[in-house]
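Notebook, p. 212. Picked up where the previous page left off. The plan for this session was modest: take the two constructs that came back from the sequencing core last week, fold each one, and keep the raw output in the notebook itself so nobody has to go hunting through shared drives later. Recording the first one now, exactly as returned: residue sequence, then the structure token string.
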Amino acid sequence: MDEQARRDYWRKNVRLLSVLLTIWALVSFGAGIFFADALNNMEVAGFPIGFWFANQGSILIFLALIAVYVWRMDKLDRDYGIDIDDYEGEVHHS
């Protein structure tokens, strides 16, 4: 992979991480802490939504974000011709 392709790959990786971490922060801190009082006016399965996000929802969203990250990185690796099996046990430094 040439230097420009490496930069593009890394830029796309960082952008994906930034988006996913922003979603995580909004759900964890926003829905679970900052907006919990406002969200507690609605219920999910008999529990106030703010309480639910603080205790269950943010964990489920976090697991979904991990799955999205794995799926998107697999696609990004394929797009750039990266095969993890080619690097088994090897450490590459540039």
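Okay, moving on. Second construct, recorded in the same format:
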Amino acid sequence: MRAAVLRAVGEPVRVEDVELDDPGPEEVLVRVEAAGVCHTELHYTSGDIPCPLPVVLGHEGAGTVEAVGERVDDLRPGQRVGFTWRPRCGRCEACVTGRPVMCVAGRVQARSGGLVDGTTRLHRGAERLHHFLGVSCFAESAVVSRGALVPLPEDVPAAVAAIAGCAVVTGVGAVVNVASAGAALAGRSVLVVGAGGVGLSAVMGAVLVGAGQVVVVDVAADKLALARRLGATATLDASSLADGGVVEAVRELTGGGVDVAIEAVGRPATLQQAFAALRPGGTVVAVGLSAADATVAVPVNELVQQQKRLVGSLYGSANPAVDLPRLLALHRSGRLPLEQLLGASHPLDGVADAYEQLRAGAVGRAVVLPGAAA
């Protein structure tokens, strides 16, 4: 099959002919129909976050089951499925205590570049290639663990299902599973920093739970325009504001600060802005990834005396097997307009172009369609 391979940090991604082994026990072969282009992967291609190389990229996608391995009795060939890059083993402490995104299998896959047993199904002759976060869906087909798949409704478009499996779960989940966990957000104020796929999903999540004010900050006017179409009540172009201007503007718009801030950029400076823009008792939910050695400074007295909170959320702190079907049901009922998140479509040979457009600030979530003609 053909797949997009990263062989060295800083090098362009190249589409190569690679070999894919048959699925082993508790594994599934999936024909990839659509794969989302996520900003997280730029951290890996640049070396900000290390991963085993060479690697077949892609971690957000959807497709159709082609074959199942031994001990897979709940999926069948021809069934549509979405990928998740945090598999659920169902046996570790994280899984049995209701925190499946912290499952040990996810850490094994990320560190080893293999599947849940640490080994790979990808190669070129004797050369082994690695899986990216256990998925590797920038390819015509993928073999993944059963715990990394969620059955999909037949009537959901592949591109919508693809982006729902990462960007949407992460952004909506940060609002619904984390920010709303301790108190209802209906009528309250939410700040979203960053209007990429995850940030825009957080906007939809805030609208879904009835937030009274949804303020979005970005440096791109076209992204802010899309945020307004998705329900933002106010937008701020950070590129036109002086140092400290974002925080002052947010406080002015909200009468002293926001109840919740979703930081979807992953930069220390924007995380500090989000924290400073909170009203007393407010919460920042950090979802954006950064370089592996990045740190952020928080004023201790402000943290204590104003009882502010700073929490992290991986993958929307979701249970993908439960949350992804719910999100798609909300989409089908018209309450989550996920199709508005979609950006440009690219054939598999256009993966490198998709990355370049992402770096340049492309609006919406681009998707790769492996079956499309170049």
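Notes on construct two before I forget. The radius of gyration is 20 Å.
Flagging for discussion at group meeting.
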